[in-house]
């Protein structure tokens, strides 16, 4: 009898286990990001890391989402996003066209875009893009800086693949001044042992937030709303400022 009861109990447990719904897999979003944009996102010993990666990961965790990061070159990232290969991308400069085209979420943080020249340059400041007349300005191809600056046809542009090449061209005299995010240019110049050869001009070009983007679909809108709530919470608690301060003051 005891053996019969044990067998019946085992059979019941087996049936109940089979009827129990399978545990729900963690929700995952595939996110595109620029592959080499230190200190905000970059590869470190095979791990994709950086300030923006940490902000995005922590915000996603607050809403029960895991991010599958896909670091690729900037132009390819945008093309793959428009081709439907990513659920979203980050970190974008806000423009009117982008707000109309996608659901922009953020800001993740703000970036101060500055003018940088050689330390021995006589140039003291640039208070307006109009003062760039006659100068060659180093920029990264595909980047958006500020709408009126980007659309100014009078600016003589020396395009580079990335900030490393932008700084190298400045040091070689192929440009008179370059433009970029202060933190990124400082990090890159230190990697090149060239920070002491450069000088940041006092007046920045602009200070703007950096955003994540999702497709202008019902699903994209839902993801944008959820991430926005998490980012708002992190800003309110001071967590984003804490992440930035810790990373930039090591």
Protein topology:
Blueprint: H1 2-19, E1 27-34, E2 42-44, E3 47-49, H2 51-62, E4 65-72, H3 74-82, E5 88-92, H4 96-101, E6 102-118, E7 136-140, H5 147-150, E8 156-160, H6 163-171, E9 177-181, H7 182-191, E10 198-200, E11 206-215, H8 218-237, H9 239-248
Parallel strand pairs: 1-4, 1-5, 7-8, 7-9
Antiparallel strand pairs: 2-3, 5-11, 6-9, 6-10, 6-11
Helix pairs in contact: 2-8
Identify the notable features of this structure and list them briefly:
globular; 250 residues; two-stranded antiparallel ribbon; alpha/beta
Number of helices, counting only DSSP H or I runs of 4 residues or more? 9
Number of strands: 11
Envelope shape: globular
Strand content: 25-35%
Helix content: 25-40%
The sequence of SSEs as H and E is HEEEHEHEHEEHEHEHEEHH
- Rg (C-alpha, Å): 24 Å
Give a structural overview:
It is a single chain. This protein has 250 residues and is an alpha/beta fold. The protein has helices at 2-19, 51-62, 74-82, 96-101, 147-150, 163-171, 182-191, 218-237, 239-248, and strands at 27-34, 42-44, 47-49, 65-72, 88-92, 102-118, 136-140, 156-160, 177-181, 198-200, 206-215. The strands form two sheets. Strands 1, 4, 5, 6, 7, 8, 9, 10 and 11 form a nine-stranded mixed beta sheet that branches. It has a two-stranded antiparallel sheet with strand order 2-3. Mean pLDDT is 90; it is low at 1-24.
């Amino acid at each position: 009898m005891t053996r019969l009861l044990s067998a019946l109990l085992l059979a019941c447990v087996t049936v109940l286990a089979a009827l129990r719904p399978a545990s729900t897999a963690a929700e995952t979003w595939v996110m595109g990001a620029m592959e080499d944009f230190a200190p905000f996102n970059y590869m470190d010993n095979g791990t994709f890391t950086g300030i923006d990666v940490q902000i995005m990961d922590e915000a996603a965790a607050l809403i029960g989402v895991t991010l599958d990061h896909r670091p690729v070159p900037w132009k390819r990232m945008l093309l793959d996003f428009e081709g439907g290969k990513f659920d979203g991308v980050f970190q974008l400069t806000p423009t009117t066209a982008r707000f109309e085209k996608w659901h922009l979420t953020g800001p993740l943080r703000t970036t101060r875009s500055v003018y940088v020249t050689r330390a021995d340059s006589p140039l003291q400041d640039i208070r307006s893009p109009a003062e760039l007349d006659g100068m060659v300005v180093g920029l990264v191809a595909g980047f958006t800086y500020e709408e009126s600056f980007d659309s100014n046809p009078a600016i003589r542009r020396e395009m580079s693949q990335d900030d490393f090449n932008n700084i190298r061209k400045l040091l070689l005299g192929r440009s008179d001044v370059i433009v970029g995010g202060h933190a990124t240019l400082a990090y890159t110049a230190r990697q090149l042992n060239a920070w002491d050869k450069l000088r940041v001009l006092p007046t920045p070009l602009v200070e703007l937030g950096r955003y994540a983007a999702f497709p202008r679909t019902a699903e994209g809108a839902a993801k944008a709303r959820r991430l926005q709530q998490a980012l708002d919470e992190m800003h309110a608690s001071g967590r984003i400022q804490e992440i930035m301060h810790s990373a930039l003051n090591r």
